[in-house]
C-alpha cells in the first residue's frame, strides 16, 4: 500500500505549475527537489510530527527545509490556488452540489504559546484554543475554511465563509461563487445574517433557537468533512505559532480532500 504522503504523478502535474520558480544559485549545493519537499510537508501534515523530528532517512530533507519551503509557497498562495484548480475540475465533472451548502465549526486545542488567533474556548473549560470554520457543498466538498480564536462565536463567521468561497470555474459562463441555499444549526440563528444572505441571493435554512433542530440529517455532510479535516493530525491540534503556516496546512488538507473526490475518469 502506498503511503498517503507519497505524491502521485497525477497530483504532481497539478501542483508543479503553481510553484514559484527559484533562481538558481551560483554557488552552494543544489536545492532539494520540490516534489520530495512536498512529501516531507505531507508527512508532517498526516502524522503531526514536529518539524525537527522529520526522519532524515525518508529523503525529504530537514524539517527546517520543509518549513521554509512551505513558508515560501504560502506567500505565493500555492495551495489556495491548488484548491481552486481542483474545485474547477470537480465543477467541470459535475460533482459539486450548488443547490445547498452547509456551514459548521470545530474547536481545536492550541499547544504553542503565542499562537494567534486564539482565545478561551466556550465549551472546553476555558482552555485556550482555536476554531476551524468550514463551508462545504451539499455533498461534503470543502469550499472554504477559516481559522479564528476558540472564543469566536460560530455565527460571526457565516458571512465571511460565504465571501471566502473562491470563484469556481470549469464550465462555460461566469465562475460560480455562491450556493442556492445555506444550511446551518441553531448557533447561526441571527435575523440580520439571514437578511444579508437573502440579499446575496442565498436562501437561509438555519434552525431557530429553542426549537428542534430539523436540519441535522442535511448537516451531517459538513460534520463528516470536518472529521476528514481533523484526520490530518497536524490540524487536530494547532502547533504553529504563525497563522499563515496553519492556514497553508488547512488549504493543503482541503485540496487533498477535493483530490480524493475527483472522478477516476479525469485523474
Report on this model:
- With 267 residues, the protein is of the alpha/beta class.
- The chain has helices at 9-15, 34-47, 63-75, 78-93, 158-164, 191-199, 216-229, 233-236, 243-261, and strands at residues 101-110, 119-120, 128-137, 142-149, 181-184, 203-206, 237-238.
- Strands 1, 2, 3, 4, 5, 6 and 7 form a seven-stranded mixed β-sheet that branches.
- The longest helix is centred in the C-terminal third of the chain and has 19 residues, at 243-261.
Describe, in short, the structure shown.
Helix content is 39%, strand content 15%.
Give the topology.
Blueprint: H1 9-15, H2 34-47, H3 63-75, H4 78-93, E1 101-110, E2 119-120, E3 128-137, E4 142-149, H5 158-164, E5 181-184, H6 191-199, E6 203-206, H7 216-229, H8 233-236, E7 237-238, H9 243-261
Parallel strand pairs: 1-5, 1-7, 5-6
Antiparallel strand pairs: 1-3, 2-3, 3-4
Amino acid at each position: 500500500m502506498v503511503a498517503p504522503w507519497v505524491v502521485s504523478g497525477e497530483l504532481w502535474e497539478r501542483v508543479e505549475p503553481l510553484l514559484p520558480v527559484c533562481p538558481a544559485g551560483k554557488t552552494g549545493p543544489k536545492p532539494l527537489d520540490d516534489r520530495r519537499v512536498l512529501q516531507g510537508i505531507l508527512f508532517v501534515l498526516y502524522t503531526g510530527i514536529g518539524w525537527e523530528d522529520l526522519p532524515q532517512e525518508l529523503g525529504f530533507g530537514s524539517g527546517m527545509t520543509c518549513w521554509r519551503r512551505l513558508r515560501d509557497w504560502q506567500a505565493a498562495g500555492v495551495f489556495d490556488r491548488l484548491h481552486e484548480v481542483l474545485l474547477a475540475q470537480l465543477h467541470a465533472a459535475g460533482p459539486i452540489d450548488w443547490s445547498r451548502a452547509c456551514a459548521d465549526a470545530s474547536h481545536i486545542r492550541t499547544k504553542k504559546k503565542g499562537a494567534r488567533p486564539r482565545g478561551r474556548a466556550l465549551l472546553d473549560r476555558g482552555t485556550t484554543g482555536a476554531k476551524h470554520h468550514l463551508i462545504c457543498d451539499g455533498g461534503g466538498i470543502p469550499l472554504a475554511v477559516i481559522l479564528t480564536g476558540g472564543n469566536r462565536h460560530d455565527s460571526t463567521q457565516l458571512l465571511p465563509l460565504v465571501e471566502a468561497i473562491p470563484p469556481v470555474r470549469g464550465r462555460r459562463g461566469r465562475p460560480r461563487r455562491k450556493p442556492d441555499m445555506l444550511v446551518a444549526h441553531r448557533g447561526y440563528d441571527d435575523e440580520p445574517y439571514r437578511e444579508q444572505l437573502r440579499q446575496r441571493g442565498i436562501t437561509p435554512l438555519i434552525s431557530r433557537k429553542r426549537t428542534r433542530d430539523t436540519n441535522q440529517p442535511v448537516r451531517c455532510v459538513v460534520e463528516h468533512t470536518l472529521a476528514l479535516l481533523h484526520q490530518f493530525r497536524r490540524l487536530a491540534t494547532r502547533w504553529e505559532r504563525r497563522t499563515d503556516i496553519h492556514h497553508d496546512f488547512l488549504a493543503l488538507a482541503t485540496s487533498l480532500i477535493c483530490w480524493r473526490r475527483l472522478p477516476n475518469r479525469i485523474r
